[in-house]
Write a structure and sequence with these properties.
The protein is of the alpha+beta class and about 425 residues long. The chain has two domains: about 5-15 and about 290-410, OB fold (Dihydrolipoamide Acetyltransferase, E2P); about 30-285, Rossmann fold (3-Layer(aba) Sandwich), CATH 3.40.50. About 25% of the residues lie in helices and about 30% in strands. It is built from ten helices and 21 strands. Strands 1, 16, 17, 18, 19 and 20 form a six-stranded antiparallel sheet that branches. Strands 7-8-9-4-10-11 form a six-stranded mixed sheet, sandwiched between helices. A five-stranded antiparallel sheet has the order 14-13-12-15-21. Strand 18 and strand 19 form a beta hairpin. Bound molecules: adenosine-5'-triphosphate and magnesium ion (MG). The site of magnesium ion has 3 residues, from helix 3.
């Protein structure tokens, strides 16, 4: 269903892909009971819904826990952030994703109170904190470069935020032990940062950020300096910490895979503007803008024209028709762009009945799939074929293309 053979010129009446069922994703309760360390490190503020045995996502509340309303920040002529409104629920893991210079760090700095907006308001737990100094906001921050004190031991680094808040030493010891236990560094308390690997240093930075039980944990590309394997391990660690502590997390990254795999919702920024704020599955399957479609995951963009009925678009290169669903109807003849993920293109034997066929330009082995770069007339297309469905192909081979039209997205140019 929903698959069209390129060149078949068949009209279809089905709508676009299915609505994303959030309930299925959110209803995965954790049965783990809170350990002492977890209890010691629970956030300071309002009790959180993300406890053992309760649904993972925080309940939709009329008031967001962290709220940015029409926040802008300019540096002279540079508009770093424009009219950003972002409502984050308590206990949510939100990634801020965007290319370099899109305003990600600016957003975090404004939330942390290291910087202040040119206009707009920031509310935390029902309180206007727009002009509140950083230290009274109850926010923890982890930076890309760890920012550990080189002359202090692991213990002293983690204890620092508590000591600067003049906490009694028995309390400091208990909280530091609990934080180090959570990041699994109990055995390294007496080491100096230079005696640790990059991943271990980042875990110290994490422990230091969570030790005073921040209501919100901000992380600015915390894994940027780590190699791929360590990054993957740390992603799991950070997810575990989030689940166990129930802290609201804002996580900055320019790595779309990282954002897709870790977040409850992703905010995609582009040139200081919010392009889309939605769960990963929606960002990937139903990108709101061309930019989001192109930035998150690989995509084929194809020119298309609205048919006479105003409800379908003819994709010229593929000679398939895509229903408009929510976009329609549009004026016949309107030029649009259709986006199609590589996994929604399948290769079928080319028997000459379906036009010219797509010519294989290159094949790239990905482990579980093969990426095929194809040429169809003047158009370059990328198809991703699962290994079990892949028939070995050589450059120059011709295939018919099958298109999952229900997965196509349509953008008005
Ligand atoms: N203190 C500053 N003075 C002048 N311009 C600034 C300042 N801070 C940020 N900018 C500008 O604001 C824009 C957004 O910067 P920001 O640091 O938020 O980007 P980013 O998304 O974090 O990028 P990256 O992925 O490279 O870290 C950029 O154009 C940057 O040059
Ligand atoms: Mg940055």
């Amino acid at each position: 269903m929903g698959v069209q053979r390129a060149g078949a010129h068949r009209h279809v009446s089905s709508g676009h892909g299915q609505a994303w069922d959030r309930g299925a994703e959110e209803g995965s309760p954790s049965s783990r009971s809170a350990t002492q360390a977890q209890r010691a490190l629970r956030p300071n503020r309002a009790p959180h819904a993300n406890r053992a045995g309760e649904p993972h996502a925080a309940p939709a509340s009329p008031t967001a826990f962290l709220r940015l309303d029409a926040v802008s920040r300019s540096f002279g002529a540079t508009v770093a952030l424009q009219d950003l409104s972002l409502h984050v629920r308590h206990g949510e893991f939100v990634s801020i994703l965007g290319p370099s210079g899109s305003g990600k760090s600016t957003t975090l700095n404004l939330i942390a109170g290291f910087d202040f907006p040119s206009s707009g308001e920031i509310h935390l737990d029902g309180r206007d904190v727009t002009w509140e100094p950083s230290h009274s906001r109850g926010i923890g921050m982890v930076f890309q470069n760890y920012a550990l004190f080189p002359h202090m031991t692991v213990f002293e680094n983690v204890a620092f935020p508590l000591r600067s808040r003049r906490q009694p030493s028995a309390m400091v010891k208990a909280a530091v032990d609990a934080a180090l236990q959570l990041v699994q560094l109990e055995s390294m308390v007496d080491r100096l940062p230079r005696q640790l690997s990059g991943g271990q240093q980042q875990r110290v930075a994490l422990a230091r950020a969570i030790v005073y039980r921040p209501a919100v944990l901000l992380m600015d590309e915390p894994l940027g300096a780590l190699d791929r394997k360590l990054r993957a391990d740390m992603q799991v660690e950070i997810k575990r910490l989030h689940r166990e502590l129930g802290t609201t997390v804002l996580y900055v990254t320019h790595d779309q895979e990282e954002a897709l795999s870790m977040s409850d919702r992703i905010a995609v920024l582009h040139r200081g503007r919010l392009e889309q704020f939605a769960p990963p599955q929606e960002i990937y399957a139903r990108p709101a803008t061309r930019f989001v479609a192109g930035f998150v995951g690989e995509v084929n963009f194809l020119p298309a024209t609205i048919d006479a009925d105003g409800r379908t678009a003819l994709v010229h290169d593929l000679e398939v028709r895509v229903p408009l669903a929510a976009n329609g109807p549009l004026a016949p003849g309107t030029r649009v762009t259709v986006s199609l993920r590589p996994e929604h293109l399948a290769l079928a034997p080319h028997d000459g009945s379906s036009g010219q066929g797509a010519i294989v330009v290159e094949t790239l082995y990905l482990g579980d799939a093969v990426k095929c770069v194809l040429r169809l007339g003047d158009t370059r297309l990328v198809a991703k074929v699962p290994l079990r469905r892949y028939t070995p192909a050589e450059p120059g081979d011709a295939f018919a293309l099958e298109v999952d039209i229900t997965a196509c997205q349509l953008f008005i140019d």
